[in-house]
Design a protein that fits this description.
Blueprint (H helix, E strand, L loop, with lengths): L11 H5 L8 E5 L1 E5 L2 E7 L10 E10 L11 E7 L2 E10 L1 E5 L4 E4 L4 E5 L4 E6 L8 E9 L10 E5 L4 E4 L2 E7 L1 E2 L2 E2 L8 E8 L4 E5 L5 E8 L2 E3 L2 E3 L3 E5 L5 E5 L4 E8 L7 E3 L2 E3 L2 H12 L28
Antiparallel strand pairs: 1-22, 2-3, 3-4, 4-11, 5-10, 6-9, 6-11, 7-8, 7-10, 9-12, 13-14, 14-17, 15-16, 17-24, 18-23, 19-22, 19-24, 20-21, 25-26
The protein binds manganese (II) ion.
Manganese (II) ion (MN) binds next to strand 5.
Length: 318
């Protein structure tokens, strides 16, 4: 019978100096699902990880082709509500038109940031305009708002120019927060960062990290090796706190998002398009959207409003 070695079996040297704990590395697969009629890879939340910093949702859509399954014009996501989160829309190709219940009508194109803060409640619709029909490639992300701001008024920001930072082997665009010597002007309610990375073919890029942050790397195109793990589209590389840099080796040109932040300290209750803390808050939001009480406002859109499924814990409708 063989068994594990006991500590008492180890040589003295091994006992005397236990190695420092290595920062965590995890690789997880994105879940394939459908938003509107478009297939997406949902990297977050997943079973192992609910949040990375305040980032609580990462959908990667496309690249969609005009003849692709269920695509047609591109993305068509009718009016739907949000609360307690910020939506971050970031494109690699195509164009999306955002309309919301604050009265915003704002197209977003590659290199530009659409950032909507839901607070107590907002509604929006997103669609591919006719002029860029069939092309859609990007990421839709959510950032959980902290209790200090999550009941506040909704707001919207569009940033057409963001700081770009040249790194060895890569160029970084700072969507939110600070990275290297770049600082984004985008609103930020918690300590988090979002960076678009273009790693050159055959390059070894070194990214400066904040040791107090945890991070996720999500690949949009290409593939890279980080911390001895090969990652490509459809996977999420999670890095725990305690690193001051990350090396990336890319055999081909690679496009990725680096997401990070101080671990989010409040426990979230997420359901449908809502980020809350309790079921009672979700129940109230469900009622307000279903009964159109006005809490989420009206969106000027030709697309059909998206109805919420009744939360399972509420049982059958009376
Ligand atoms: Mn939305």
């Amino acid at each position: 019978v063989s068994g594990p070695l006991e500590v008492s079996d180890l040589p003295d040297a091994a006992r005397a100096a236990p190695p420092a704990p290595r920062p965590i590395v995890e690789v997880s697969d994105a879940r394939r699902t459908v938003v509107g009629s478009a297939p997406v890879r949902r990297a977050l939340p997943n079973r192992a990880r609910r949040t990375v910093g305040a980032w609580c949702f990462v959908d990667h859509f496309g690249p969609l082709q005009p003849a692709g399954p269920g695509v047609g014009r591109g993305l068509e996501i009718g009016p739907h509500p949000h609360m307690g989160l910020q939506t971050v829309t970031w494109l690699f190709d195509g164009e999306l038109l955002h309309r919301d219940s604050i009265g915003t009508e704002q197209p977003v194109r590659p290199g530009q940031l659409n950032l909507m803060t839901a607070g107590h409640g907002v509604a929006h619709a997103e669609e591919t305009p006719l002029r860029s029909a069939g092309r859609a490639h990007g990421m839709q992300l959510w950032v959980a708002q902290p209790s200090a701001t999550r009941d506040g008024a909704p707001s919207f920001e569009h940033h057409s120019a963001l700081p770009r930072v040249e790194l060895p082997g890569a160029v970084a665009t700072v969507l939110v927060g600070g990275f290297a010597d770049g600082a984004s002007p985008a609103r930020r309610d918690t300590e988090h960062v979002g960076v678009d990375l273009l790693v050159r073919t055959g390059a070894h890029a070194v990214l400066p990290l904040d040791p107090g942050f945890e991070y996720a790397l999500v690949i949009a195109e290409g593939a890279t090796v980080a911390e001895s793990h090969a990652v490509g589209p459809g996977r999420l590389l999670y890095l725990g706190e305690g690193r001051d840099e990350l090396g990336l080796h890319s055999g081909s040109a690679t496009r990725a998002l680096l997401l990070g932040g101080r671990p989010f300290s409040e426990s979230l209750f997420m359901w449908w398009n809502f980020v809350a803390r309790t079921r009672a808050e979700i129940d109230a939001a469900y009622e307000d959207w279903t009964r159109a009480t006005g809490r989420f406002g009206e969106v000027r859109s030709d697309l059909a409003r998206i109805e919420a499924d009744r939360p399972a814990w509420r049982g059958a409708a009376p």
